[in-house]
Amino acid sequence: MTSMLIAISVLCGIGLAMALLLAVGKRAFAVEVDPRFEQLMDVIPGANCGGCGLPGCSGYASALLAGTAAPDACPPGGAELTMEIGRILGMEVTVREPEVALVRCAGGNSESPIRARYDGIDDCRAAHALAGGFKSCTHGCLGLGSCIAACTFNAIERTANGLVRIDPERCTGCRNCIAACPRHIIAMVPKKEVVHVLCINPDKAKDVKAVCTVGCTGCKICGKQSPRMVFDGALARVSTDANDPLDPSVALSCPQGSIYDAREYRLSDWLSSADTRKHFEERAAAWKEAEKARKAGARKEKPPKKDDDQPASSQQEVTP
Amino acid sequence: MNILIIVLMAMLTENFVLSKFLGICPFLGVSRRISTALGMSMAVLFVMLVASLLTYAIHIHILLPLDVSYLQTIVFILVIASTVQLTEMAIQKLSPGLYDALGIFLPLITTNCAVLGIAVLNVDRGYHLLEVLFFALGAAAGFGLALLLFAGLRETMETADIPKSFQGAAIALVTAGILSLAFMGFSGLAPTS
After folding, report:
1. Does residue A174 or residue A317 have the better pLDDT?
2. Which neighbouring-strand residues pair with A197?
3. DSSP letters of A15-61?
4. Cβ of A14 and B93 within 8 Å?
């Protein structure tokens, strides 16, 4: 018992003495640090994800003070952090539109079949390097999850159908997954946007149809619905130059079903549920009937615009 | 005479980095430039001196009389960590440039096993005060010597035509190995132990 007390008091005594020494040293060697540095460090998330391109969060804080980094460069912090930084540094800030990463591929194992057995290491980069991967579509998501390993925020998960999906609520927009994907499938999209083309296969219609049932063929039907559907060769994409989210009825016009509508469907269902697909096809068929009727009516008189069952003006919360 | 042997031994035959393989982290980490290597050596010299004197005093006057020398490791770590903190503050105040150059390696001296190694060796070998002082000086000089030699080699290597697969850490580790082999040659200096 005594020996234990002695040991404890020895350790405590030495600890106390050292603490005193350090306290004195702190006074003696006090360095003038910009008090704003500490304030910045308090508000910056501290994930050290590297999304700002600087070495860690303290590097970002220093760069902010030096004026070499922008106050909106921290993706995990988002608009809130930008405002805070503006307050601390006493400067005008413009809040950047929040962006999230999106896996632009809906071709799971049932849509784009596996063409070869892959027994290599569990990494998309390795699989992609081996003859373009085991999937029929050489542009599609391999689903081995290199992006999952790169994500420091646990925002990515595998779907039942051999794909991955990114949870937009957890995604902070740090872009680490974009660098990890060997096929460049992941891209940043505005968080408020609700319609996305989930395909990046740039091949001609015949070649796309040969490898995937939900690939974009570049038929440009969606382009007739909205000028915001733009085309890179034979591949549609939603342009990002508008302020408002795109009318989701564009998705119904797609004969391939490669345009995803976040207001109507959960992304994970869209990527792996046959029921969702069936529901979408029924809705699309109904919509096409209505369009046909509207066009027929337009020849005789000018009817009011036929609304889709999902009104374009509704601005409800995006719940993918 | 005994003192001279201790210094030479600590510096060459028992070089902490190249023979005992202690303190490899800063050896590889801050050896890119001779100037930062010199700064690191100075910081290590200071920490080694202060830490060995402090730990020696604590061992003689506190741990031994109270018969708690089994607390050696934790007490020594405590003392070393505090000394490093103090050194860090001092360097930040006196030489901000050096502070930035040393970066993360300065706080890492805390876990530099060369520093703990010298504290433990002092006690294990039963050195008296003067011997402790010179052992620390010699060891720090040896650390500095190894670091400077290596930094010089690495600065020269930057202009060398190194095969792609060897560039960077690979050639650095190979060089460190060869340097260590060279230091083996000093073992002939050692008195039979």
Report:
1. A174
2. A259
3. HHHHHHHHHHHHHHT-----HHHHHHHHHS------TTSSSHHHHHH
4. no
Tell me: pLDDT of B146 over 50: yes
pTM over 0.80: no
DSSP three-state, residue B89? helix
Task: Tell me the residue type at A45.
Answer: P
Side-chain-side CA neighbours of residue A319 (13 Å) = 3
Q: What is the DSSP string of B93-141?
A: HH-HHHHHHHTTHHHHGGG-HHHHHHHHHHHHTT--HHHHHHHHHHHHH
**A34–chain B nearest CA distance, Å:** 14
Packed helices A35-43 and A78-89: angle between N→C axes, nearest 10 degrees? 170
Residue of A8, A10, A11, A12 to mutate, interface with B, max B Cβ within 10 Å: A10
Task: Tell me whether residues A31 and B92 touch, CB distance under 8 A.
Answer: yes
CA distances in angstroms from A147 to A9, A101, A136, A150, A178, listed in the order given: 52, 11, 20, 5, 7
Asked if the Cβ–Cβ distance from B68 to A3 is below 8 Å, we say yes
- Within A159-287, strands assigned E span 164-166, 186-190, 195-197, 229-231, 236-238, 259-261
Contact list in B for residue A24 (CB cut-off 8 A) is none
Length of chain A equals 320
Query: Which tokens hold the place of B164?
Result: 């792609």
CA atoms of B18 and B40, how far apart (whole Å): 17
Angle between helices B113-124 and B34-58 (to 10 degrees): 40
pLDDT in tens, A150-208: 998 899 998 888 899 999 888 888 888 998 999 999 999 888 888 889 999 998 888 99
* In contact, A150 and A166? CB cutoff 8 Å: no
The pLDDT score that the predictor gives to residue B192 is 54
Cα four-point dihedral sign A41, A42, A45, A48: positive
Query: Among A49, A60, A59, which Cα is nearest to A85's?
Result: A60
Distance CA A117, CA A22 (A): 62
Does ipTM come in above 0.90?
Answer: no
* Rounded-to-integer distance, Cα B132 and Cα A290, Å: 94
Given an 8 Å threshold on Cβ–Cβ distance, is A7 in contact with B63? no
CA distances from A275 to A109, A159, A250, A251, A260 (A): 16, 15, 20, 17, 15
For residues A250 and A261, what is the distance between their CA atoms, to the nearest angstrom?
9
Which pLDDT score, from 0 to 100, does residue A313 have? 46
- Whether the CB-CB separation of A116 and A219 falls below 8 Å is answered with no
**Residue B166 to residue B144: CA distance in whole angstroms:** 26
- Rounded to the nearest angstrom, the minimum Cα separation between B68 and chain A is 6
